[in-house]
Amino acid sequence: MIYFFYFIVILLGLIIGSFINCLIYRLKNKQAITGRSFCPQCKKQINWYDNIPLLSYFLLRAKCRWCRKKISLQYPLVELITAMLFLIVFIATYNLQLTTYNLLLILRNWTFTAFLIIIFIYDFKYYLILDKIIIPAIIIAFIFNLFFYNLLNLLLAALIAGGFFFLQFIVSRGQWIGGGDIRLGILIGLMLGWPNILVALVISYVLGSIIGLGLIITKRATMKSTVPLGAFLSIGTFISLLWVDKIIEWYLNINLYGF
Ligand SMILES: [Zn+2]
Questions:
Q1: How far is ligand 1, taken at its centre, from the CA of residue 68, in Å?
Q2: Is residue 158 part of a domain?
Q3: Residues 112, 118, 121, 122: is their CA dihedral positive or negative?
Q4: Which residues have CB less than 5 Å away from ligand 1 (the ion)?
Q5: pLDDT at position 259
Q6: Where does the record place the Prepilin peptidase A24 N-terminal domain (predicted)?
Q7: How far is the CA of 77 from the centre of ligand 1 (A)?
Q8: Residues 6+ apart with CB under 8 A from 253
Q9: Confidence (pTM)
């Protein structure tokens, strides 16, 4: 039975991944979200049987049926990664009981994950955090978490994470941090609550420093290179969304034994 659930979750992830690809393309090109998909090169409509997540990419051998131009590897990659993350969320969240609470928690974590994937890709590709994504995400995160946290806890987390970036914004006069980062801080505060938001910030900064240093050492970046902070924050938020309790437990154990 559980494998049947896994199968359904993977299918759902592939469909959401396909939708995310479409959304990112349309946001970038300022097009309406609704309407049939078309080839970005020749603008011809894509038949439904050429628009099956993952499968169509391979059946078409990565080329458009009409103009034979290459389809970006981003499309199957995002679909595959979304499906994997949806499965990981399900395995980490499902407690083998079909209670309303548990189902709501799974639905919440999938929704947050989808938003984090969009934020990650957009910031990674274009160094931008869009209000068109962040504002709806803030509203949805707030409503979802009214079921799981008390109001004060949520507001405190949003204030601290937003304030943390706002301070950097003031100190650097807008050089290190943009307005989008402040709103992203508020969003991840609302997604995680207090004190989980602290864990996410620490993970994101550690991860960013390791990757940044790696790029500088291998001369693929300099100290002045732009950092997709939103991409790192998305990863940190995802990790603490699923495993914050385990991370805190692990951290307390380390301190207990004096390592
Ligand atoms: Zn085409």
A1: 6
A2: yes
A3: negative
A4: 39, 41-42, 64, 66-67
A5: 54
A6: 11-91
A7: 19
A8: none
A9: 0.93
